[in-house]
Amino acid sequence: MKKSTHEKRAKIANDVMNYIYKYIDTDINIDDLSIELKVSKFHLHRIFKDEFGKNIYESIKSIRLEKAANLLITNKYSTITNIANMTGYSSQTSFLRAFKERFLMTPKMWKSGGYKEYSNKIVEQIVNSDENINFLKIEPSIVKMPEIKAYYIRHQGYDKSIKKTWQKLQTWIYTNDIKEYKQLALHHDNPIITPLEQCQYIALVTLENKDENLENLSLPTLTIPKGIYAKFSLSGKYGDVIKLIQWVYHTWLIESGYETTPNPSYTIYHKNHFLSSDEEFILDYYLPIKYV
C-alpha cells in the first residue's frame, strides 16, 4: 500500500473515531458520516475495521457502555434512565440488556459496588505485587491542554507486549534522527473496565521541532483533542499505571465533584518503562473532566 493511501485511510478511521466520541450521546448516523467524509458506507466500515480491529457499531456500543459505567459511579443523583439517555440509548430496556451483556450485572448492581469487584479481577491480571501506593499523596492539577498532533502505532492489548510497539516507534525516531520529542500513550479503552486483550493502546510521539524534516514518513498521525484535564504525576514500575487509573476513576473522580468526558485519557512519559533498562517510569496521566 502506498504511504499516501495508508495515511489517508488512517485519517478516515481516526476521523470516524473522533466523531463517535464527540456525538456518543446522540443517535449516530453512519449515512451522514459517510457523506461528511466523502467515503461510501462500505469503504467506511472496511477502513475502520482494518484500523481498529472491530466494526463501527461495536465501537459505538463499547464507548457508550464505558461512559455509562463511569457515569453510574460518579453521577450520584442521576437515575439509570437519565444515564441511558446521556449515553445515547433510546430506551432503558435496551440499555439494561446491553449493560448486563457487557458487565454481567445490572446497572443497579454495578452502581452499588459491583464495579469494584469487576475491575479488581482485571487489575489482578497485571498487578502481581501486594505493595500499595499511597495515592492520597498525589495532588492533581487541573489544566487546560491544547490539541496535540502526534505520529503513532496502534497496539491491540494491554500487557507487556506493548514493549514491542514502543521499540518499533523508537526505531522510527532513530531512523529520522529526531532529537527533541515527547512520548505519549492514548487509551481509547479504559483498561480497568475493558478486557485487557481488547484494549486499544496507542503509542505516540510528538515532535518538539515542528519544522523537522523527516526521512521516513511511514507513520500516520492523529490528533488528541484539546480540553480540560486532571493531571496526575506518578513514578513507578509496570503494574502501577493501572493501579493509578483504578484509583483515579474509582476514588478521586467520585470524591472530586467532576465527571469524565467521553474523550480518551492519555499519558505523557518523562521516562518510559517499556524502553528504560530499569523498567521504571515517570509520567503524567491526563483524565478529561468537566464541571458539573
Q: What would you note in describing this structure?
A:
It contains nine helices and nine strands. The chain has 292 residues and is an alpha+beta fold. Strands 1, 2, 3, 4, 5, 6, 7, 8 and 9 form a nine-stranded antiparallel β-sheet that branches. A hairpin with an 8-residue loop joins strand 8 and strand 9 (280-291). The longest helix has 20 residues, at 3-22. The protein starts with a helix and ends with a strand. 32% of the residues are buried.
Main structural class? alpha+beta
Please bin the fraction of helical residues: 40-55%
Low-confidence sequence ranges: none
The portion of residues forming beta strands comes to 15-25%
Give the SSE string: HHHHHHHEEHEEEEHEEE
Number of helices: 9
Tell me the total number of β-strands: 9
Largest sheet: 9 strands, antiparallel
Bulk shape: globular
Q: What is the fold's blueprint, element by element?
A:
Elements (H helix, E strand, L loop, with lengths): L2 H20 L7 H8 L3 H12 L3 H19 L5 H7 L5 H12 L3 H17 L17 E5 L2 E9 L5 H14 L5 E7 L12 E8 L13 E4 L2 E11 L2 H17 L1 E3 L4 E7 L8 E12 L1
Antiparallel strand pairs: 1-6, 2-4, 2-5, 3-4, 3-8, 6-9, 7-9, 8-9
Helix pairs in contact: 1-3, 1-4
Features:
nine-stranded antiparallel sheet; 43% helix; 9 strands; 9 helices; alpha+beta; 292 residues; single chain; 23% strand
